[in-house]
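sry for the spam today, last one i promise. struct tokens for design, 292 residues
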């Protein structure tokens, strides 16, 4: 089944909700970057959150970058979403060894680290992008996105994320949700949501139990009456072009480019987000260098 994003609104008008099934996205990321399970889980959660946040912008041609830099062994984890929620991403060290809290429970927080920041860059097709950051809370990503939305965007929210890895290291299930309270929501609604969230199972458990997106949203909102919008299909999608990859070549600097020319052999440059390879001959590199 293709990945989907489902948006909903409580009929009382106080709660905005979005949920996603992202198994296909995370599995594609795993294949591209040959991530080990802990890296798959961390990158998968960042991709999942980024997709929902990108979709929620509702501005055509906009994009959203979610970057997590926690000082842990994974290094930087980054994802970029388009306006529909199609995402791409990478993790700096995709082959980190297994980190577990206990047997069978991946320790994403330790792999990401907690000594750093979560940064969101919203490119809303205006002159300057909007950039907001928050210090990491746990490195588990869901908590950190929750803190970001509350602190940096003053929007009381709750974000739950889950990536379940199968015994053969492929992605068995992945998904998440974000709930947001609209301004003026009465205390009774807040209390009801807090209680529901404190007693519901983790996203991973809900996914593993085979819950659908509407079921997951009903569960985390304590069965509130919800109005669902038309679900939208999302996927792992890269927008790389030869020109963009050329720009990363330029960033190598004159000296490096000259040494490629001196080598006299064509080079392959892989896009950092996907497995597309671009070939540059020494002649191509000479042209790039002369254009600097
Ligand atoms: Zn690409």
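last one done:
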């Amino acid at each position: 089944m293709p990945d989907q994003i489902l948006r909903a609104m409580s009929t009382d008008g106080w709660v905005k909700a979005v949920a996603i099934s992202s198994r296909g996205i995370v599995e594609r990321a795993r294949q591209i970057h040959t991530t080990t399970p802990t890296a798959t889980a961390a990158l998968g959660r960042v991709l999942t959150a980024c997709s929902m946040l990108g979709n929620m912008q509702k501005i055509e041609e906009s994009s959203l970058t979610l970057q997590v830099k926690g000082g842990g062994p994974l290094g930087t984890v980054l994802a970029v979403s388009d306006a529909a929620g199609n995402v791409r991403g990478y993790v700096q060290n995709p082959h980190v060894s297994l980190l577990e809290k206990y047997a069978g429970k991946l320790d994403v927080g330790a792999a990401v680290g907690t000594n750093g920041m979560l940064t969101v860059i919203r490119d809303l097709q205006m002159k300057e992008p909007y950039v907001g950051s928050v210090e990491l809370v746990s490195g588990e990503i869901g908590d950190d996105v929750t803190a970001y939305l509350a602190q940096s965007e003053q929007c009381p929210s709750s974000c739950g994320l889950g990536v379940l890895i199968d015994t053969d290291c492929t992605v068995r299930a992945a998904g998440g949700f974000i709930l947001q309270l609209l301004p003026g929501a009465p205390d009774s609604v807040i209390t009801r949501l807090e209680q529901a969230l404190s007693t519901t199972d983790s996203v991973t458990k809900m996914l593993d139990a085979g819950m659908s997106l509407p079921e997951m949203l009903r569960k985390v909102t304590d069965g509130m009456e919800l109005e669902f919008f038309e679900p939208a299909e999302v996927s792992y999608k890269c927008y790389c072009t030869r020109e963009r990859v050329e720009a990363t070549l330029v960033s190598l600097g004159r000296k490096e480019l000259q040494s490629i020319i001196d080598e006299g052999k064509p080079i392959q440059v892989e896009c950092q987000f996907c497995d597309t390879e671009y070939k540059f001959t020494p002649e191509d590199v000479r042209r790039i260098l002369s254009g600097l």
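The first helix runs from residue 23 to 33. ok im logging off now
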